[in-house]
Amino acid sequence: MDPRLLKTFSAVITHGSFSDAARELGYTQSAVSQQIASLEGELGVELVCRRPVGPTEAGARLMDHVASILLRINAARAEVQRVKGGTTGRLNVGICPLAATAHALRIIGEVARRAGAHELTVRTLPRQAVAEDVATGKLDLGLVDGFALPEDPLRPPRGAGLRGVPVCREPVVVALPPHHPLAHRTDLRLADLIDARWIDAPGVSAPLADLCAVVGDSPHLRVALRYDGHDVRTYTELLAGGQGLGLLPRFALAGRQDLVGIPLTQPELSHRVEALRVTGGPPVVDDLVASLTEPVEPVGTETQPRS
Which residue intervals define the domain HTH lysR-type in the entry (predicted)? Predict the structure, then answer.
């Protein structure tokens, strides 16, 4: 299957429109239609319903594979390019919102200066976007985070040829305003919160659906509000305003008087940060990973990195 045809097919299904896909890809609408017809001819099955535009059953099956196929191709292209080597003087780091601790950002800046990087770019991105951009060479290093049980590994984001290196671990708390009826508790179980109202903020904290999947037999968590952004401050302001409960690493509440963090003891989740990299990256990445995983003395309530 021609990757260009797969990319066009993905755009048509994603937009639900031939014209919108054409606009995104820079093609004419007739060219998009011809490419879809070519792909259908090659596979011998109809992939796209024309009115309304959407995937057939076969198209839906193909769509399940398209993202990983295109990612794999882009990752292979990036790896071939890395073989050429050479120093660009640029360092690109992607970081999830709750992985952006003061310690991590300080280390990134120090290592970049030490390596003589004349251009440092730090991007805050969703977890899957960080993984994909590291795999395809848009980022030299990524810092991703998530919640996991003590005996379980952090669920890896989808990616091609990625290696995760543990950076730090932090206890998880239930964040709520001081006037909340549960604010006096010394600890909480998820089972205590079956009737609670939650804020689902997948771009900042763990999506509630993923949290239920990690825990396994947890009760269904009722969503009161969904926050679709990636700003930690906006999320915590919603929590402080009593819009719902949320899970956060303990350090995220440091210095806040309008939020209380009650330890979550059952299940005993931990918040983890991992560095994502690929084999054969620039030498500065080795230095950066080593510095991020180097044990340090804890300062206040900030996360303590450990290898």
Answer: 1-56
The contacts of residue 110 (CB under 8 Å, 6+ apart) are: 291
111: its two tokens: 């290592």
- DSSP code for 153: P
């995104």: which residue's tokens?
24
**Radius of gyration of the chain measured on its C-alpha atoms:** 22
Q: What percent of the chain has pLDDT over 90?
A: 51
Could you tell me the domains of the chain?
3-83 (1.10.10.10), 90-167+272-292 (3.40.190.10), 169-270 (3.40.190.290)
- 14-23 contacts at long range (C-beta below 8 A, 24 or more positions apart): 16/52, 16/53, 16/54, 17/53, 18/53
Instruction: Find the range with the poorest average confidence among 62-71, 142-151, 231-240, 248-257.
Output: 62-71
Whole-angstrom distance, CA of residue 260 vs CA of residue 176: 5
Rounded-to-integer distance, Cα 192 and Cα 168, Å? 28
Secondary structure letter of residue 143 according to DSSP: E
pTM: 0.71
Q: Which residues contact 225 (CB under 8 A, 6 or more apart)?
A: 197, 199, 200, 238, 243, 244
Element (H, E) at 131: helix 127-135
Dist CA 38 CA 57 (whole Å) = 18
Q: How many angstroms separate the CA atoms of 32 and 30, rounded?
A: 5
